[in-house]
Each structure stands twice: as C-alpha cells, then as structure tokens.
Amino acid sequence: MKASIKWKEQVTFLGETESGHSVLMDGPPEGGGRNLGPRPMELVLLGTGGCTTYDVIHILEKGRQQVTGCEVKIDAERASEDPKVFTKIHFHFIVTGKNLKPEHVERAIHLSAEKYCSASIMLSKMADITHDFEIIQDTA
Questions:
Q1: Which of 11, 17, 37, 86 has the smallest CB count inside 10 Å?
Q2: Position 97 pLDDT exceeds 90
Q3: Please, what are the domains in the chain?
Q4: Is 49 exposed, middle or buried (0-12, 13-18, 19+ CB in 10 A)?
Q5: How far apart, in whole angstroms, are the C-alpha atoms of residue 54 and residue 38?
Q6: For residues 43 and 33, what is the distance between their CA atoms, to the nearest angstrom?
Q7: pLDDT tens for residues 40-92?
Q8: How buried is 22 (Cβ within 10 angstroms: 0-12 exposed, 13-18 middle, 19+ buried)?
Q9: What residues pair up with 71 in beta bridges, in sequence order?
Q10: Distance, CA of 112 to CA of 53 (rounded, Å)
C-alpha cells in the first residue's frame, strides 16, 4: 500500500492514495489553517470506523443476518501532552435489520475488534477501546 502527501500552503495538505483518491487535510484557523478539510487524526478515526463497520456488516451477512443499515458513532479522547495519541475510543454501533439477533451483533463486533479490523487492533495498543450497540428492527 502506498500513499503520498503534498504540502499545499500553510497547514493544508493533499493526501493521495494508491487507488487514486484524494483527501484535502487542513488545520483549524487558530493553528494557521482555513478549516478546508478534516484533520489528520480525524481521518484516523474515520478510517478505523470504516474498517470495523465493514467487518461487522460482512460478518453479519455471512451469518445470514438481514442487515439493512449500520452506523457507528465514535467518541475519542486524546492525551493532553505531545504526542497527543488517542487514549480512549468508544464505538457505538447502531445496526438496523430484520430479525437481528443481539448475540450475532455482539459476536460480529467482537470479531472485528479482536481479529479482523487492523486499524482498531493497532490503536488498541495505546488506547482503551470500548464498544456497545443498539439494534433497530426494520419492520418494512
């Protein structure tokens, strides 16, 4: 996997992925930025959330669960001193589907956290990561 980062101006950077996608990153106005894009550490959280959500949906579908939607809300804390690493991250999954079984959702989240999601497993080496979930039964 390869990526590149190009400095544009002040604290604005353009990230380019090997797969051909670009992301503009910027800092807050008080740090010399213009708030034109997400902060790099926000992208770390988004990437981790995407990784674990992908896993959870995939595992549930393999388990023949009828998933119609999945959202994860992430709440994170960082150290107050440099390096300002993540110290706590909480993932709250909201899984929607037909006849979803809580034990299947719990198992999928556990498998993602402990076995499949490279990003969350990597972050768990320095941050306390917790998970919970709610199920919304789709009656349509």
A1: 17
A2: yes
A3: 1-38 (2.20.25), 40-137 (3.30.300.20)
A4: buried
A5: 21
A6: 16
A7: 999 999 999 999 999 999 999 999 999 999 999 999 999 999 999 999 999 99
A8: exposed
A9: 94
A10: 8
